[in-house]
């Protein structure tokens, strides 16, 4: 481990510019379907890809979800995939280790405006608004138009 040098240490280069901070990987918003595919063994290739994405973004600390996504995951995992509610709850706890956007009334109103302007569902509007609010430049989802950029957020379908 390198020792810290004082400003007057002769080994220190005079006039050297301070090193640039390391760029942090881009934050990415994970939509509900990404989380659901992690548990859907009927879609093996999508399951594999979804697991890769979740593990990658957890390791890099770049993943973002919202309360809406966690709620939708629980409902659909138990209803559509038949997961035991206790197991689904544990998975919600695990996914809550990502950065979680907790919408407030101003976010609900912004999503309504987003819905009116962009003519998309309110729920998709809330996802996009929460992604933008949290500093994400990308939303990973299968539900929206791949490649489209809306208000600085690019939609990416990772299963194509």
Provide a descriptive summary of the structure in words:
With about 160 residues, the chain is α/β, with parallel strands linked by helices. It has one domain (about 30-155): Rossmann fold. It has helices at about 30-35, 45-60, 65-80, 85-95, 105-120, 120-135, and strands at about 30, 65, 100, 140, 150, 155. It has a six-stranded mixed β-sheet. Strand 5 and strand 6 form a beta hairpin. The longest helix has 17 residues, at about 45-60. It is globular, with a radius of gyration of 20 Å. The termini are far apart. Residues about 1-15 have low confidence and may be disordered.
Sheet having the most strands: 6 strands, mixed
Shape: globular
**CATH class category name:** Alpha Beta
Helix percentage range: 40-55%
Number of strands: 6
Strand order of the largest sheet: 3-2-1-4-6-5
Helix/strand class: alpha/beta
What's the CATH topology name? Rossmann fold
List the topology elements:
Blueprint lengths: L27 E3 L1 H6 L6 H17 L2 E4 H13 L5 H11 L3 E3 L3 H14 L3 H12 L4 E3 L8 E2 L2 E4 L4
Parallel strand pairs: 1-2, 1-4, 2-3, 4-6
Antiparallel strand pairs: 5-6
Helix pairs in contact: 3-4, 5-6
Short description:
This protein is an alpha/beta fold. The chain has helices spanning 32-37, 44-60, 67-79, 85-95, 105-118, 122-133; strands spanning 28-30, 63-66, 99-101, 138-140, 149-150, 153-156.
Features:
160 residues, alpha/beta, Rossmann fold, 46% helix, disordered N terminus
């Amino acid at each position: 481990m390198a020792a810290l040098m004082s400003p007057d240490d002769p080994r220190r280069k005079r006039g050297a510019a301070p090193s640039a901070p390391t760029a942090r990987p881009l934050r990415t918003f994970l939509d509900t379907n990404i989380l659901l595919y992690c548990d859907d063994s009927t879609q093996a290739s999508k399951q594999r890809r979804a697991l890769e994405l979740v593990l990658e973004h957890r390791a890099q600390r770049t993943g973002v979800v919202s309360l809406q996504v966690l709620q939708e995951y629980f409902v659909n995992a138990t209803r559509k995939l038949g997961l035991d509610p206790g197991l689904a709850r544990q998975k919600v706890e695990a996914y809550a280790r990502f950065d979680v956007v907790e919408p407030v009334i101003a976010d609900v109103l912004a999503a309504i405006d987003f819905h009116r302007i962009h003519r998309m569902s309110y729920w998709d509007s809330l996802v996009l608004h929460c992604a933008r609010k949290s500093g994400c430049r990308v939303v990973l989802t299968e539900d929206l138009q791949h490649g489209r950029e809306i208000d600085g957020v690019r939609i990416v379908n990772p299963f194509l």
